[in-house]
Amino acid sequence: MNDGDQRGASQPSSEDLDLKDASYLVDAVFRLEHAVTRIGNIRLAPWSLTLSSYTAMRVMYNRPHLSLAQVARRCFVRPQTINRIVSQLEARGFVARGPHEDSERAVALSLTAEGIVALKEMTAEVDKINTTLTQALGADEIGLMQEMLRSSARMVEAEAKELQKAAKRD
């Protein structure tokens, strides 16, 4: 093997570097998502609920009388997943189903008084996660980071929507 071959075999190519650099942000976001989910589930263990259940409760608190489909969209989960979550919350007495004002077929969801009390208790724990996330940032950076993450999410969601539309056409 000549010297050129050895160098080529031991050093990454420019294509490898591009792939490594391009995936770094995705890896960081993926790691953060899993870390937040893990700590959230640990903090919410006294209520035997997950961060997904907490998020669904927050959505129902902030927007009472949404349908299952509307809650699913706001929680970024499939209707089957939100149906399972809501059924568990209903069994615990945290959620009530009622008639939906806009549709005879849809069911409106709302938190019960017991659900609101539990949500407020859980929020104190979830706020601790937020505090941990923002410890390394200054006040200006927190707002900037939130906006950048939301903007990035909107862009990725739009791209995913376009890809789904293209896949349906094919």
Automatic annotation (TrEMBL):
Keyword hit for Amino-acid biosynthesis: no
Listed GO biological process terms: response to stress
Gene3D superfamilies xref list: Winged helix-like DNA-binding domain superfamily/Winged helix DNA-binding domain
Matches recorded under InterPro entries: HTH_MarR-typ (IPR000835), MarR/SlyA-like (IPR039422), WH-like_DNA-bd_sf (IPR036388), WH_DNA-bd_sf (IPR036390)
The keyword Metal-binding belongs to this UniProt entry's keyword annotation: no
GO molecular function, one term: DNA-binding transcription factor activity
Chain ranges of the HTH marR-type domain: 22-154
Domain of life: Bacteria
Keywords: DNA-binding
Residue spans crossing the bilayer: none
PANTHER family cross-referenced by the UniProt entry: HTH-TYPE TRANSCRIPTIONAL REPRESSOR YETL (PTHR33164:SF43), TRANSCRIPTIONAL REGULATOR, MARR FAMILY (PTHR33164)
Protein name (Swiss-Prot/TrEMBL): DNA-binding MarR family transcriptional regulator
High-level lineage: Bacteria, Bacillati, Actinomycetota, Actinomycetes, Pseudonocardiales
